[in-house]
Amino acid sequence: MSQVQKYNGQDADIQLWTFPGGIHPPERKAPANQEPIRRFPLADEFIIPLRQHIGALSEVQVSVGDHVRKGDLLSAPGIEHGLPVHAPTSGEIIEIGEFPLNHPSGLSGPGIRLRSDHEDTWGQRHPLPDYRNQSHLTVLEHLQRMGIAGLGGAGFPTARKVAGARGIDCLIINGAECEPYIAADDRLMREHAAEIVRGSLILQWMTHASSILIAIEDNKPEAIAAMREAVAQTREQLSAEQQSDFVLKVVVIPTKYPSGGERQLIQILTGKQVPAHGLPADIGILMHNTGTAWAICRAIEHGEPLLERVVTLTGESIGSPCTAWVPLGTPVQHVLAHVDFTPEAQQRVIIGGPMMGFTLPHLQVPVIKTTNCILAPTRKELPPAGQEMPCIRCGACADVCPASLLPQQLYWLANAQDYDGLKAHHLADCIECGACAYVCPSEIPLVQYYRQAKAEMREQAIEHHKAEIARQRFEARQARLEREKEERLERHAQAAKAREEALAARKQQAEQRSASGTTDDAMPDANSDPVASAVARAKARKAEREAARNEESSAVTGTDTVQAQDPKKAAVAAAVARAKARKEAQAAAQKDTETNTEASTPEDKKKAAVAAAVARAKARKAAKQKDEDS
Amino acid sequence: MSWVLGIIALSVLALVAGLILGFAAIRFRVEGDPIVEQIDQILPQTQCGQCGYPGCRPYAQAIADGDEINKCPPGGQATIDRLADLLGREAKPLDAAHGAEDVKKVAVIREDECIGCTKCIQACPVDAIIGATRQMHTVIADECTGCDLCVEPCPVDCIDMLPLPTKPERWTWNLEQIPVQNITDAAATTETSERGPA
Question: Could you tell me which residues of B are annotated as the binding site for [4Fe-4S] cluster?
């Protein structure tokens, strides 16, 4: 807040601070920044990866064979702020599948292949010129639908960044472009200053920031002049009320790498540090790249989705270094073909600058929203990394670290895979600017170690999360199995009870039958003499069995005469039937135990568990047998 | 006389302290063994049973009761080291009798060969297979722990254990593994070649 008060009054100069560390590598912005931004003929084929930004993957909305026009939606705005992709030109969709990605891993990912018809006809455009009369939500949704992502570095969806920012006091438009070679923002500011300023005003309207600071490094005097002029013109057009509402200013900052880093630039302009694990919005600051401001302006005023961007084409292997408007999805190969690319043996092609860029494994990858530079250096110009030597503990890396970390210590810890130690030394705050590796006299690729350690830590976090889910699912399943087992036992108990009741009923029947006959005295004695009662019970059971057999055989044969004639045969048949029944029961029991043991012990290895399960199964079987016998 | 006083005072103090300790032992008694919980947190929760126990929690219990800590192949050496760290035991190499450390895999059902017997569903320890009797089954890849338990029961052998594909968002910056293609060669073939190696 105090800072804003300081730069009230339009022309009062801002006090600048600095960030710790930083380096001054050769800038080499010329000759790429000398020529106006060029435009090449359209490529024959475009590869549009579905993911060009941070966030969820969006869903494809077209199918193979569809004819699309320039700016048509190819994928739906996904859930969780996934950005859509658009057709960079008119043509036919010829393939939807996996394509090599513009990514350091060289892996493939989902994408759409489009064959250009070279007519470049625009589809329906929906500008939103009266945005000031619309709700913020409408404008945010519009920006989301237009696929606007941060063009500076990571490609964070702009609508999400703006929507997530509350209580913004200061809006910073980042035109620092501190990395050597890169001149895309430089040229854009020189040629499209007015649009950048108008885009900034849209951002100001959405965030209610009380100041807009356009920060440019002092090695771009032409861009500074162009932006100053555009700002002066815009200020004239603004109403008096608006003028008093907010401050709009171009700030020239000293050239130092990495002053274009979000946290570093905030420190330079305000002297404040963004808290670790926090966002600039936490201290009332929102930062956007100049390219993003330009894209916002185009999307609102002309309804143009993010279809192309300025790409710097430079390096000594490129005959005519320049900047160019390249439609997103254009293969790198096609772009290089128009700038007199003469590869040397084992030519490296780097996406991004020499400090933070990555080498492409091959040239068939497309230009995407975050591709600000294609660098093709000769070996003499940018020698490949030499032999890594042991750390001599000179401490040069700690002197240049813009995040005030201890790169040397992080290096030891990363080598030892001491992830707790890395956490304690705030590896997460490393912005991977490469300053430490640049000054290292032992040529240790420090950033590479940090990236691997970061990826490993992220992987561990994912694994831990997945393990937690697996544990919950396992426990839920155990609980379910337990419940089912109890239900089964309950059912068995009920069945046994029913059986007993039926038995008792039959016994009573038999008793009644025998009572109607002669043996009347057996039962009354039962209580007095246990032996007699047992004998009586056995007799009764025999009688009952006899009766049952009689019933059965009579049911089968229909006549009593057969049974009377051939009692032996009938007895044999009954025995066979009994044996069969027992066998069946056994088989059923076996099956039951099998299915039970299967779930917990499927492999022979786990002998202990199997033995336990078998013992359990045997016990259960025995219990069942007893149940049946009684 | 003062030494008698001293002894009495100390005895009274000891008695009071003993009473407090005795009370605390009953009042703040810990149900279960918290170390089991901590061990369970370290185990990979694959629930594969390769350790000889039916799941990770039973193995955690067994470790707490004194079993070896080197019986978990999915966790590998990293898990053994962390267990050794937690329990103050010696970190041993993985016991080969229980299997070898392997890349992370995920079960995939060849769906047109599936006969819908539900046997794999019964075997899955984390309920990551969906399907019904005589209906095709499939694996929820995100929930699959790669435990291997569904492969054995399948009567038609239609389940494969495939290594988890590397995705760019989970790539671990292993620059040595990038398929390197010589750009000069690629430039020679130029625009006629439509696509590079996928």
Answer: 48, 51, 56, 72, 114, 117, 120, 124, 144, 147, 150, 154
